[in-house]
Amino acid sequence: MNIQTFIILNLIIYLPFHLFEEAVGDFPRWMYEHKWLPYHMTHGHWMSNNLFLYYPMLLISAFLFFVSEHFICFGVGILVWGIINFGDHFFYTIKDKKISPGLITGILFLANSITGFICFFSSDMFSALHLIAGILIGGVLFGLPMGLCIVIYPFFEKYTK
Q1: Of 47, 69, 76, 92, which has fewest CB within 10 angstroms of its CB?
Q2: 67-122 confidence digits (pLDDT tens)
Q3: How far apart are CA 153 and CA 161, in angstroms?
Q4: Which of 78, 76, 56, 75 is nearest to 65 (CA)?
Q5: Any idea where the domains of the chain sit in the sequence?
Q6: CA dihedral in degrees (43, 46, 49, 54; nearest 10)?
C-alpha cells in the first residue's frame, strides 16, 4: 500500500463512521460542556458544520495532494489531522475517566495515520519540508473549521429557531 490509500481511509473513517460515533455520544453537548464551543448546537447544526466546513477542507487537501506532487504536504496534513483527532479524544477520555464520543474511530485514525506515515517516510516523496508543512496544515485542518464554526454560528442560529 502507499500513502494515498491511508489518506483516503482517513476520509472514509471520518464520514460516516467517526461522525456516527460522535452523534450517538451527543458530541454537540460534549463540545459545549468541554468549552470547545461557546454555544450548545443542535445535532443538525453540528452535522452541517461537519459537512460544510470540516469535510470540505479535508477534501480540498486530498484533491491538492492527488493533483500534484508539489502538494504532498496536504496529504501529510490529513494524516496529522487524524492523529490530532485521536489525541483530542484520548486526552478527554483520560481527563474525564470516561470514553469520549469518537475515541473508537479516533483509534482507527491513529493506526491508519501512523501506517500512512510509515509509507511516507519510506517513500521517495519524503522531505523534512513536506513533513513540517504537513504538520502545520494538519493543525489548520483541525482548528480552522472549529474557529469558523464559532464565528459563523450566530448567522446560522437565526435559521434554527
Answers
A1: 69
A2: 998 999 999 999 999 999 999 999 999 999 999 999 999 999 999 999 999 999 99
A3: 13
A4: 75
A5: 3-34+56-149
A6: -120
Q: Which of 75, 42, 55, 62 is nearest to 144 (CA)?
A: 55
Is the pTM value of this prediction over 0.70? yes
Q: Long-range contacts made by residues 65-70, C-beta under 8 angstroms, separation at least 24?
A: 65/4, 65/7, 66/4, 69/125
Q: Is 65 helix (H, G, I), strand (E, B) or coil?
A: helix
Beta carbons of 62 and 11 less than 8 angstroms apart: yes
Question: Hey, what's the cell of 18?
Answer: 467517526
How far, in Å, are 79, 98, 102, 156 from residue 92 at the CA level? 21, 8, 11, 28
In the block, residue with C-alpha cell 482517513: 10
Q: Which helix (H) or strand (E) holds 114?
A: helix 103-121
